[in-house]
Amino acid sequence: MNRVIRKNLAGYAFLLPWLVGFLLLAIGPILFSLYLSFTKYNVINPPQWIGLDNYAYMFGRDARFRKALQVTFTFVAFAVPAKLVFALAVAMLLDKGIRAIGIYRALFYLPSILGGSIAVAILWRNLFNADGVVNTILGFVGIDGPAWLADPRYSLWTLIVLAVWQFGSPMLIFLAGLRAIPQELYEAAEIDAAGKVKQFFAITVPLLAPVIFFNLVLQMIEAFKSFSGAFIISGGSGAPLDSLLFYTVYLFNEAFSFLRMGYASALAWVLLAIIAAFTAIAFWTSKYWVHYEGERG
């Protein structure tokens, strides 16, 4: 018994640095932000307890909060499905055994490595400026392109295109899932005279459903947290006309531009609740369309 205790103590001793860091740098700030969400706090003066006033103002009188929700939900609703469809299409093309597939994988994955970097956002801004590369190319064919980033009708769509362009990560996951599907199933379907479309919906989609679900949850969470592109392209304000006022941009401004740290903490917890709710809905609905290998029999 003493030997078992000593072994356990040795294990906990090795875990102690991580455990201390987790409690002090993760759990501690999270719990403190929950406390701050019920206070009026501007960083300079001590927090002042105000109860549910932050949440009451947020849901009752804050028009920009509602605008941030609208912009973010629109972005998630269009960017996530488009990104997954495009990633799956490219993965299916790469699954055909083309030459130099490793080079193609690396090239397609490169935008995802760059992720939400500031450099990518600046590049995108230069591409879609009124005198940017996109309008220059359109000008060669006689099309007078709009001011993509200055017009609220188009500005959000440029960010959606940016999100779809960074399809490399889900593409690689889809490719791994496609490689795991037995080729014998497609051969049997061809013998039964099943076309490519029928094979896709009868074989590929059902067997790839767990991978689709995994990518869906990951990309949905990432879309809700999207920040860098909207912040850099809009200059941190959500312009034009708040069309790029992503939830995270609004939260950042409340915390660090206006020093309303208590209200920003409340915004952060609402965002956490929204992500948790959508994730829970995704898991609840998955039982109707996601079936794992061990469940089929």
Order of helices and strands: HEEHHHHHHHHHHHH
Termini separation comes to: 45 Å
Mean pLDDT: 90
- Low-confidence blocks of residues: none
Level of helix content?
over 70%
Provide the CATH topology.
MetI-like fold
β-strand percent reads under 5%
Number of helices: 13
CATH architecture: Orthogonal Bundle
Number of strands: 2
Q: What overall geometry do the principal axes of the alpha carbons give?
A: globular
Main beta-sheet annotation: 2 strands, antiparallel
Can you summarize this structure?
With 297 residues, the protein is mainly α. The chain has 13 helices and 2 strands, in the order H-E-E-H-H-H-H-H-H-H-H-H-H-H-H. It has helices at 2-36, 53-60, 63-94, 101-114, 118-128, 133-140, 155-165, 168-179, 183-191, 196-224, 228-233, 247-257, 261-286; strands at 39-40, 48-49.
Provide structural commentary.
By secondary structure, this protein is mostly helical. It has a two-stranded antiparallel ribbon. The model has no long low-confidence stretch (mean pLDDT 90). The longest helix has 35 residues, at 2-36. It has 13 helices and 2 strands; from the N terminus they run αββαααααααααααα. A hairpin with a 7-residue loop joins strand 1 (39-40) and strand 2 (48-49). The protein has helices spanning 2-36, 53-60, 63-94, 101-114, 118-128, 133-140, 155-165, 168-179, 183-191, 196-224, 228-233, 247-257, 261-286; strands at 39-40, 48-49. 24% of the residues are buried. The chain has one domain (61-295): MetI-like fold (Orthogonal Bundle), CATH 1.10.3720.10.
